[in-house]
Amino acid sequence: MLWVDLTIFPSATVHIENVFSHFMPMSNEERLANYLEVTSKQKHPYPQSVFHGSDDRLYGTWVMGADDRVSSGYYGGYPATYLKRISALFPDKKKCLHLFAGVVDKEPFAINNPDCEQITLDINASLNPDVVGDCHNLAEHFEEGTFDLILADPPYSVEDAQHYQTTMIKRNTTLKECLKVLKVGGHLVWLDQVLPQYRKVNLKPIAYIGMVKSTNHRFRVITIFERIY
User: Fold this and answer.
1) Helix (H) or strand (E) run with residue 112 in it
2) pLDDT digit string, tens, across residues 154-170
3) Inter-residue contact 12 to 6 (CB < 8 Å)
4) DSSP class of residue 58?
C-alpha cells in the first residue's frame, strides 16, 4: 500500500479532492444551494420558495407568472423558465431524456448545464424528435442505464391525450420502463397533476414542488425521484 504525506505534497490534496468530487453525487442540499445561487444572479431573480426539509427532501412552489410564452411554440410545451430552473438543480447531469417531448427547445436547459446531452423522444414522428418511440417500451430504444436524468411531462387526462393524437399513457408501466434506462443514482423529474405510483425499493422521492402558472391554468406538481436500486 502506498502512503503519501500530503503535508509534503499539498497539490496532491487538491487532486484527491477533485477525484472524489467527480465521483461523489451532489446532495439534495447542494442541489438547492446551486439553484439558489444561479437564480439569484439573474436579471430577474426568483423568490426563494424552495426549502430543504428536515427529512432531506426539497419542498416548495414555483410561481411561473403570467408569461404564457413557450419557447418551442408547441401547444402544451414547457412554460417559460421551467427547463432553466430544472437545469439549475441538476448541473452535474451528462445525458438527459426528454420523455413525451413534443417539441422541446433545448437551449433553456443548456444555459445552466451546457455539457449535458439532451435526447428527445415522442411517439409522433411528425414532431421530428431525436427518437420516435413509445414510453411503454423504452428498453427497445435505449440500453440499460443510458440516462442520468429523465424529464417527463405526460398527458394529464384522456382529453389531453386526444389533443396530442395519442392514447392515454399507463403511468405505472412508464415508470417501470424509465427504471430500465435510468442509471442508479439518476433522477426522474415527473411533472403531472397526480403523484404516480412507484416502487419504494427502486425510487425515492427527493422533492415535491408545486407549479403555478397563472389564472385559469391547472396546478401541477413536480415530483423528483432518485433511483436507488
Assistant:
1) helix 107-112
2) 987 777 767 767 777 89
3) yes
4) E
